[in-house]
């Protein structure tokens, strides 16, 4: 069974995300790895600010099968893709923040480049504001399986780090455990807000 500490940590993270308004109108989805074959993922249509452990479904990482017969999140295939691509990933958070959603449309290139921010050091492996942190941006698609294939193709050429953006949709990020995924989410959200405000001010 799932590590109870990680499940409780994920539920707490969902409540924190809900309180910040980062998953409005039942949007967003969150998961935690159980082992090499299974993860636990939030059930579709649930308010993320009031989730309990019973609102998470066991899902097969290989084929997205949910033995319970209940409906996992629409973006299930993106979570299982991350777990397949990166065995070290222990938790995945997908949110619909205003900053991530707007910035993903403002930036027209395939990657957003973050540079010069001290808060880059909130991301695992980053030790200097002088580094450039790339965040891939993928066009949104209602065909999640097709979207997952495009992301997988990109990742085979250019490994993804921390997370990626979907245009007009939001941010998906991950970490080795819930705590690191939560730190990456908060760090990236801060960086996105800074970058968006910098671009707006430069136009004045």
Main attributes?
single chain; 204 residues; alpha+beta; L-fuculose-1-phosphate Aldolase; 8-stranded mixed sheet; 8 strands; globular
Describe this structure in words.
It contains five helices and eight strands; from the N terminus they run H-E-E-E-H-E-H-E-E-H-E-E-H. It has one domain: Class II aldolase/adducin N-terminal domain (L-fuculose-1-phosphate Aldolase, 3-Layer(aba) Sandwich), CATH 3.40.225. 39% of the residues are buried. By secondary structure, the protein is an alpha+beta fold. The protein starts with a helix and ends with a helix. The model has no long low-confidence stretch (mean pLDDT 94). A hairpin with a 4-residue loop joins strand 1 and strand 2 (38-42). The chain has helices at 4-19, 76-85, 98-106, 144-157, 178-202, and strands at residues 29-33, 38-42, 56-60, 91-95, 111-115, 132-138, 163-166, 170-175. The protein is 36% helix and 21% strand.
Summed up, the domain count is 1
For the biggest β-sheet, the strand order reads 3-2-1-4-8-7-6-5
Round the Cα radius of gyration to an integer and report it. Answer: 16 Å
Looking at the overall shape, the CATH architecture is: 3-Layer(aba) Sandwich
Output the number of helix runs: 5
Shape: globular
CATH class category name: Alpha Beta
The overall average pLDDT, rounded, is 94
- Spell the H/E element sequence: HEEEHEHEEHEEH
Please indicate the percent range of residues in DSSP E strands (runs of 2 or more): 15-25%
